[in-house]
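The instructor's notes for this session suggest beginning with a concrete chain rather than abstract definitions. Hand out the sequence below and ask the class to guess, before any prediction is shown, which regions might be ordered.
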Amino acid sequence: MKKELSRIAPLRAGVVTGIVVGVASITFMLICGLFVLIITLLGAHISIPPGFFLLIDFLFGPVFYAMAGFIGGLIGAAIYNLVAKWSGGLEFEFRDLEPTSP
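After discussion, reveal the predicted structure:
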C-alpha cells in the first residue's frame, strides 16, 4: 500500500524538532562539561573560571538548542511543503504485519 506525504504541519514539526534537539543537546552538554572538567584538572590556565562555562553550558545550552531545533523544524517543514507541491512529496510504502502471539 503506497501513501504519499504531501504536507507537514510546520508548527508541529517545529515543536517536535525543538523537543528532540533540546533533549539530545543534554548529552552534548554533558560531553562539553566533561571536557571542561578534564581541562581544569589538567591545570590549563584560562582567565575565566571553568565553573562559569559549566553554568552557561547547562543552563543555556539545552534552551538554545531547543530554540534552534524549533526554528529549523519550522523552516524545514515550510520548505518541504513548497517542494512537495512541485514534486508530489515523499512516497511511503506500508505493509500490514501479522500479529504475533504473546
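Then share the key points. Strands lie at 2-5, 90-93. The two ends are 27 Å apart (CA to CA).
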